[in-house]
Amino acid sequence: MTLNQLEALLGTGIPLQLQNVSFDRCECSDNPDGCCGDPDSCGDCTCALDG
Amino acid sequence: MCPRWVNKGEGVLLPLVIYSYSKGGEMKEVKLRVFKIPTDNYLIINIPALNKVYKADFKVAKEIPKFITVQSLTDNKNKRNDNLSHCTFLVTNKCNLQCAYCYGDYGVPASTKVLSFRIAKAVIDYIVSHSESESIGVHFFGGEPTLAWDLIVKLVDYTRNLASLNNKKVILGITTNGYCDANQSQWLANLDNILLSFDGPKIIQDAQRSQSFDKVFETARLIYSLAPHKLSFRSTISDKSVNYLPQIVEFFSKNFPGCIQHYEPLFEMGRGQDNSLLHSPDPDLFFEKFIEAFAIASQYNSKIQTSVLRLKPYSESFCGAAGRNFVVTWNGEITSCVRMSSGLNEAEPFFHYGYVDGEGRVIIDNNKKKKLELLNSKNIQECQNCYAEFSCKGDCPANKAVIDPLNFWRNKSWRCKSIRKFIKRILELIVEKQYEGLF
Lengths: 51, 439
What we know:
The complex is a heterodimer. By secondary structure, chain A is mainly alpha-helical. Chain A has a domain of 30 residues. Chain A is built from one helix and one strand, in the order αβ. The radius of gyration of chain A is 17 Å and the shape is elongated. About 31% of the residues of chain A have low confidence. Chain B is built from 13 helices and 17 strands. Chain B is globular, with a radius of gyration of 22 Å. The relative contact order of chain B is 0.11. Chain B has a domain of 82 residues. Classes of the chains: A mainly alpha, B alpha/beta. At the A-B interface, helix 1 and strand 1 of A face strand 5, strand 6, strand 8, strand 9 and strand 10 of B.
């Protein structure tokens, strides 16, 4: 089955977003341009699990 | 937000959602895994690589196979061959608090150590000369980094000057407990990001973090008044505070609107293994309360996070411990995990992949660094057919290393069942909210 066939059956789908919940932990070192400086708690350059 | 890329060996499969960032590459047919997750009334069809879900009734779902094919763009851009654009300095193991759950048992006066400027300078020189990126990042961590004040001030000046001479941008950050004076707080606000370890309202902060509320709150207020967009919070949730998680979210939302709030359950390691006061919360209860807190966050327009909730298809592993992080300890050792650096854990050598020698040379053991790539959910058998894997990525390898120092890299999370339940509930909420027309 192709994506088009699936979407003909189920519609275009729902983006994985939820208001005020951030799913976007920064992963700077996956980014070829280096650290993005995103102040969000960062999964890579600042461990989200400190404490 | 920067474009992100997924490295897949020979080519790079870009998630469909970020096609617009791609340059070059060619269209190729790829198979995407389809997960069918039953709820009481319908099935959630989750295709992680597409970054979206579908709602299907049970009859229709029978027609949907385990894989679908898409025309996807592959990018031939080479995998970035270094992780040298940014580093984290564990500038000291000193700490002015003695939190009951500290993973490193920091704050013990007899064993204090401070990173030398000579070692730190050598690392910054190395980064500036080796990084192919237009920007470099330096982050300060500890112990409590503000206790190595003269060092971090000197390093910030040095990094900014050197980067300027080399036409590179600098991103400077710190993870701090905020137990510092007003002049220091003011200086911190000049950095690019400040992550404050802060557990919430006074009664909780004082109980969990050495009676520090008044001073830390003052620090937070001052930094927020100067640079609100740079400040974020990281809170540890214990068995004693878990029931109050929605109130903690309300506390930060009311006092620091707009700041990211990151929540993690206490994990018992280091001093946290021996204390009798605070323990890990029940994982199901933690996730239940986290979801309950959505309504509060929504009311104040705040954003909350927790590490296993990362509904992005392009993550390769839980975090940069899988060989991407460049963390330099106060001894000049290079490791990929800040939590695996206290000397208290049997598995720590696995994470260490280099050192700075007596002559200021940065020595990297590439074989050890390569081995860290094992910290990937692809190596965890139980993750292979799991609909939640794309979000949790097998959970924190350091925590798993505390539980099983030999086999942690291939073990599923100790809270796997709870994570699966949590992610399923999140996907349900996304589907239900969509259909309620709220988004």
